[in-house]
Write a structure and sequence with these properties.
The chain is built from 14 helices and 21 strands. By secondary structure, it is α/β, with parallel strands linked by helices. The strands form three sheets. A ten-stranded mixed sheet has the order 8-7-9-6-10-11-12-13-14-15, sandwiched between helices. Strands 16-17-21-18-19-20 form a six-stranded mixed sheet, sandwiched between helices. It has a five-stranded parallel sheet with strand order 3-2-1-4-5, with helices on both faces. Helix 5 packs across helix 8 and helix 13 crosses helix 14. 33% of the residues lie in helices and 22% in strands. The protein has three domains: 86 residues, Rossmann fold (3-Layer(aba) Sandwich); 209 residues, Mur-like, catalytic domain (UDP-N-acetylmuramoyl-L-alanine:D-glutamate ligase), CATH 3.40.1190; 144 residues, Protein-Tyrosine Phosphatase, Chain A.
Length: 473
């Protein structure tokens, strides 16, 4: 059964514009696994596109009107697709229904027991932790995640179990389309400045999301994060969902008693409220950092809310070993580890640097940072620079524009100047191709190098490793 506004056969032969994107590819993959005849287009070939082709999807490179087959039942778009995209224009001219990605994902979740993971930071990690641990327990969930677990295309799967785990994106309010049985809210901060003008707008948007929780369902929310506490105050009372809190706060339903770092892993001890069994449980989180440990506790609480025994789910969480671009080790060369981080918001930058610092030993932490979006840099550039001061040295690239046009006066200098004011050792580099040589000259055995940002800075990790391995390095 499709959600209101979508014909029942609309997703039988869908065409995805930008099918290789992190969000779009996951929906396309699940549809293909369910037997839909999927087609799509993307600006370039990629391993993700290759994985979709292996599932039987037809993927065109570039955008052209004739990429839409005569029997196309819908065209699926994300908010990143511009109104003048040739395929979108053609679909409207031909009267082909245009379906937003969020509506397609809502249709996939219909008939299941959905867990929707929301928050300004940590969605991909928490969704991945749930997907991996539930699979480890043999519950065979379906899932759509904003990043690959291991191989390209592993961001999504159609399972035979009744649980569906999905990342719920607040950036364009698309998470208002979902009706989860359990909703997780990890944190609430101001971001996505092109769509939200104030924290009040953010809170209103999250309140709408919480209001979509199914009758009898539960909201799992941080007891520690100030924005989450404010949201809790706004949604409690009346006929709202059951609220389960987690965190280090003494009143949390799943209270964190200890987080003990052990190199690049952590040991976490929690105590469950009597309503959840009252047990004290210790388990391992196989990625470093306090914020990742708290993500795991959020996943544990959500599983318990859905009826999965916490004593079973806790050890299964250790089977999560990371997701691509979330402190992902790319390799080691000349005694230098190169790690990739998707962090692009100041809170994420600081959290990942603190996590890496805990496992760096005597070595230095060197960062190659690429600011993401002109609007975000305009609003948060100072805070980004302040966060980078946690590194021993940083190289800052030009802004990655993604879907945005340049904003006059907004450059990476906003980040660089702020970092320098906070005493950081920071270097501007406008030529990405010069970065491997620059880092090779800076790095010494025992150091950690982080490529950090949501753009194509990720491509530099292998290049840095290759340069470190070369004889002259």
């Amino acid at each position: 059964m499709a959600p209101a506004g979508i014909a029942s056969d609309a997703l039988d032969r869908p065409h995805f514009i930008g099918i290789g994107g992190a969000g779009m590819s996951g929906v396309a993959k699940v549809l293909a696994m369910r037997g839909a005849r999927v087609s799509g287009s993307d600006s370039k070939d990629s391993p993700i596109v290759g994985a979709l082709r292996e599932l039987g999807a037809t993927v065109h490179l570039g955008h052209a009107a004739d990429h839409l087959a005569p029997d196309t039942t819908s065209v699926v778009v994300s908010s990143a697709i511009r109104a003048d995209n040739l395929e979108l224009v053609t679909a409207r001219e031909r009267g082909i229904p245009v379906v937003h990605r969020s509506d397609a994902l809502a249709a996939l979740m219909d008939g299941s027991r959905p867990i929707a993971v929301a928050g300004t930071h940590g969605k991909t990690t928490t969704t991945s932790m749930l997907a991996v641990s539930l699979r480890t327990l043999g519950l065979d969930p379906s899932y759509v995640i904003g990043g690959d677990l291991d191989a390209p295309g592993s961001s999504a799967r159609h399972g035979d179990g009744e649980i569906f785990v999905a990342e719920a994106d607040e950036s364009d309010r698309s998470f208002h389309k979902y009706a989860p049985e359990v909703a997780i809210v990890l944190n609430v901060e101001l971001d996505h400045h092109a769509n939200y003008a104030s924290m009040d707008e953010i809170y209103e948007s999250f309140q709408t999301f919480v209001g979509r929780i199914r009758p009898g369902g539960a909201l799992v929310i941080s007891a520690d994060h100030p924005g989450a506490r404010e949201l809790t105050a706004r949604v409690t009372g009346g006929e709202g969902p059951r609220v389960l809190t987690y965190g280090e706060d003494a009143g949390a339903d799943v209270r964190v008693l200890a987080i003990e770092p052990h190199g690049l892993t952590s040991e976490v001890t929690v105590r469950l409220a009597e309503s959840l069994g009252g047990a004290e449980i210790t388990f391992t989180v196989s990625v470093p950092g306090r914020h990742y440990a708290l993500n795991a506790v959020a996943a544990l609480t959500a599983g318990a809310a859905l009826g999965v025994p916490a004593r079973d789910l806790a050890p299964a969480l250790a089977s999560y070993t990371g997701v691509k671009r979330r402190l992902q080790l790319k390799g080691t060369a000349a005694g230098v580890q190169v790690i990739d981080s998707y962090a692009h918001h100041p809170t994420e930058i600081a959290a990942d640097l603190e996590a890496i610092r805990g496992g760096a030993g005597e070595g230095r932490v060197l960062v190659v940072f690429q600011p993401h979006l002109f609007s975000r840099t305009q609003e948060l550039g100072t805070e980004m620079g302040q966060a980078l001061a946690l590194a021993d040295a940083s190289v800052v690239l030009d802004i990655y524009p993604a879907r945005e046009d340049p904003v006059p006066g907004v450059t990476s200098a906003l980040v660089i100047d702020a970092a320098a004011r906070h005493g950081a050792d920071v270097t501007a580099e406008h030529d990405r191709s010069a970065v491997p040589e620059l880092i090779a000259g800076m790095a010494k055995p025992g150091d950690l190098v982080l490529t950090m940002g949501a753009g194509d800075v990720t491509d530099l990790g292998p290049q840095i490793l290759a340069r470190l391995q070369s004889p002259e390095s």
